[in-house]
Amino acid sequence: MRKTVRNVFVLFGLSILLSVCAVADEQEQNPEAIKHYNAGVEFTRAGDYDKAVAEFKMALELDPDDVKIIYGLGLALRLQGQLEESIEYLSKVIEINPQYIEAYWDLGKAYWTQKEYDKAINQFLTITNFGPEIGGKYSMAYYSLGRLYLIQKKLDQALEVLQMAVAVDPEYGEAFYYIGEVFRKQKQLVSAIKAYNQAVAIDSTYMQAYYRLGLVYKDDGQYQRAIGAYQLVVGSSSKLATDSRYRLAVVYNAVGRYTDAVSAAKEYLEMRPGDAKALMALGEAYEGFGQVQNAIEAYTGASKDSKWSQYATYKVDELKKSAEEE
Questions:
Q1: Which letter, b or e, does each residue of 34-62 get, where b requires 16 or more Cβ atoms within 10 Å of its Cβ?
Q2: Which of 136, 211, 254, 285 could make a disulfide contact with 262, Cβ separation 3.0–4.6 Å?
Q3: What domains can you pick out in the chain, each with its CATH number?
Q4: Three-state SS letters, 8-65
Q5: Calpha distance 66→100 (Å, rounded)
Q6: What is the pTM of this model?
């Protein structure tokens, strides 16, 4: 099963809070602070971040120097979407305890959400400096760096750190997926295909990777494999299933399977009526097996879209002219 990164980001913080919660009573703390802290942990785990923030703040009033409470509040604020305040508390955690890895993690996530990518990168780089002995956070920090470098279009740097992530954790499916993304953007299609296939070998339900495989197989001229990839996505509950129907129509046209192309384009148009690109694919399919009038109707529909108007009108005129000559 691949790592679902959004959930893992949250679970990292929760795992620390819950582990601390288990030992809180053993420490010499204000009993009321412990009570509010533990309530904050439970509300964070339940996804009720408003109540979690309120509980952590009450705990902090009673025990203002407890780094665990400060971290819990910073995490809950981040999950609540109060990023500036979250950054303030998480930074304070690091000032008190520079070894508090989870604070770097959540600080990086807060900066990422704010699109302050360089600041986010600095937090994840700091995590990698702790070394592989910190466990899963080490490979995930490299993965996060790869995502951020990819956003910044620093493809060589993205590839380097993503490869570090999979070197540490060979079962890191999402890291392989983004390695594929780097190679796809670099037009290295064979390498992209290999990386996406590694992602789906780890998780056979990874529809986003199958969808990308469809794209690169098509671009590489491997049409039958593109069809197979898109069919898997179409048969799933993925949000990419709709678009995959259109892309299937395009590939079916490329290999002369015009009846299948008509079916795929029509299925797509049932979900997105009037979509010009799908009407163009439908027109091409009808034209492919000689249904000229149906092709004209499809192209005419596409011509209403300014992006496709010129080419669609040209196709209509061309078909009408050919019909007159016959």
A1: bbbbbbbbbbbeeebbeebbbbbebbbeb
A2: 285
A3: 1-114 (1.25.40.10), 205-326 (1.25.40.10)
A4: HHHHHHHHHHHHHHHHHHHCCCCHHHHHHHHHHHHHHHHCCHHHHHHHHHHHHHHCCC
A5: 13
A6: 0.88
